[in-house]
Sequence to fold (841 residues):
Amino acid sequence: MNDDNHAGAFETMVEALRARLTEGNWESWSPEEFDRRARAAFEVQFEACSPYRALCERRGVTPTSVARWEDIPAVPAAAFKHFLFDSSGSDSSVDASTRALFRTSGTTEGRQSRGRHVVPRLDLYRASLVEPFRRGLLPDRASIVFLSLVPSPDEVPDSSLSFMVGAAAERLASEVVWLMGKDGGWVEHASDRVAEIRASGEPVLLLGTALSFLHLVEDGGNALSRLPEGSRIMETGGFKGVRRTVSREELYRDIEGSTGVPRARIVNEYGMTELLSQLYEPVLTEGAEAFGVHRPPPWLAVRALDPTTLAPLPDGQEGVLAFFDLANLGSVCHVLTEDVGAIEQGRVRLRGRATGAEPRGCSRAMDELMSAAGQRR
Amino acid sequence: MLARDGRTHERGWAAPMSGSVGFGSGAPAQPDLEDLRRIIARLRARTHTLRARPAAEIRDALGRVGARFLDEADELRMRALEVLPTEAHLSVPMARTVLDGMARDWTGERLGALLRQELGDPTLLDGLAFRPGDDSASRRLEMAVGPSLCVQIVSGSVPGVGVNALLRSLSVKAPTLLKPGAGDRVLPTLFAEGLRKEDPALADALAVVYWPGGTTELEQVVLDAADVAVVYGSDETVSTLRARAPATTRVVTYHHRVGVGIVGRDAYPQVVREIARSVVLFEQRGCVCPQLIYVERGGAIPPEGFALLLAEALEALERELPGPPSTMEDASALQQLRGTAEMMAGQGGMEVHHGGQAGSWSVLFEPEPTDGPWSGPRAIRVRAVDDASLLSKLLEPLGPHLQSVGYAGLAGRAAELAEALGRVGASRVVPFGALSFPPPWWLHDGRGPLLELLRWVELEGGVR
Fold:
């Protein structure tokens, strides 16, 4: 396939998929449909994305050799730090408005420690994020006031999280108040607007990272105390390079104390820059039983794999998590993460991050140092 | 704990993962503040009696306990070998090899050599004396005084480092409080137990206590109480503790270091086996472990070929010195490493050899330096260099973190290379076979380990 043909085929697939992801009827997805779409996506990605093709060829896998989507090689999440995976086949200088380059918020100082995810078609990302967000956070209403501790996409254009909140707000927010700037400071006049909203009694959706909530709680949280009844919270975990750690339950208790939003209305979102789809704890619809399990949308297949053999593990058994995300059509769909968890009836129970927890002695694995050695400076 | 490295790209909530391993009843308990203050008072009360004992007597008592770890029939050694594989997460043959290599230096003879190497005359610890060989007109009497209380805060999971630390400070008559690394708790505890039987008075001057690194309250108590505090750990740990120590506490630090290797063009293929051993020993947790090996072009073994030979040697070592049972963390790190490496290889950026599912080793040959998630169990990078003399320039960026350099096949060029490498930061240039187990008198990070602890007293005009 030449480049023009590829780009054309890619566009056709994006359009078809975009329409499909926007449909609210998740029950209509069959395993056969997922498999068909997954193999079609692989064909496109194998063709257009040379580092990915290199991996597949080394492992003796080609689109014709793949019988089921599970046979498709997964890209290690760490590789996003070292490669730009672009499967669109289009010249990246074209149509800059439809593309984005998101970066992970890795905090290791030094070069290239942040992962990068090329999103050649932002409208596909938009299509994929709204319905899971709605089901996870607004199952009971058409719209709500957003109060966001996540900085706006204008402030942090390379954050996939900021983009997500912005895109969800376009569709589901009656109003959005951006509370935080990218430097972590409170936006001017935001408190005034929050006070008016609180006085109105209108429920809100408060969104933030674990770290932003930690800061909120530590600062006393006065600006957001006693949020109106019916309010809910989206919390997304990870303390990103901060030394302090607290348990999730402690944090949620403190959030409840600061905001008045009960524990049962705090929803954890699980997502990563490398995946365009997100998973939510369905606590608003299923209650406390859903604490700790994340529900994927039907276009995101989740598996727990044996970390050595990469064989899929039975339900309930912990392994490294692999995701096949059809929304990643523009980059690579199949991603092997460093997260550890188990699958329970199609949902993910996350245990933690396999960080190479082996305590090192006086030698740290000094990737970056070693890479620096011998570099032309 | 949540990850604190560059991989924190995930936004879901990660529950704490337990990284602790089970260990036997020999492990030290974590003291509370009151316990710790009591322990410190007990140790300080021993300062004078300890200083009154001849250094040679202390050395001999320590050596007799140390030697028990080499005696196959001795209960201390047997108990150590029973617990080490789990505690330090090493295979049984590796735990044995590590204990043999470490305990070799715990005998009276080796400790005596350390004292002589650093002090010239170890009786300088017992009272005023002339330095040996000092015939100058400015001759003066000198005495070496060890710390009144030495606190050793060690980190990591290299078994034996804690015992090395306590031997150093006890040898200079310092009551010693040792906080071992998480994966090195059993050996110092067993040593203390052996010392109690051997020499109860000396044992009273030693306490082995454990707390997880970053337990600020306890750390502060010992930093305030110590005459000399020795801190091993990451750059971050070391600088944090140094900043918190009072002006009157001397802080001796051993921050993170790395080892590298150079294979000169005169190397014989047989040396590859030795190199492979140095790579796997301690499972690359030590500063003496090479993480990167340069191979000189123009020799009998071309760099690409060396990478292949090294891969074969690592494969062979899987039987003799197997790795520990794979953890979820290590297996996951390997998947990330190999997958990324295979992509780079597929694009011509490197060559990768690895042991497949069954083997924990990976050799990455880099025609040009690459960035990647290259830290994993038994992962070694190999690069080509036109001439060994270029090495010091290449390694300059590593400077403050560079420690050991293993070499082979340099013919007459080792001294020249050592001078150049020393100037950019290396403190130890040794044949690969000697890389893993430096002798007790090695210049640890370029400094005499006993001299770092000592204070000197001089007397002029009082010649006896």
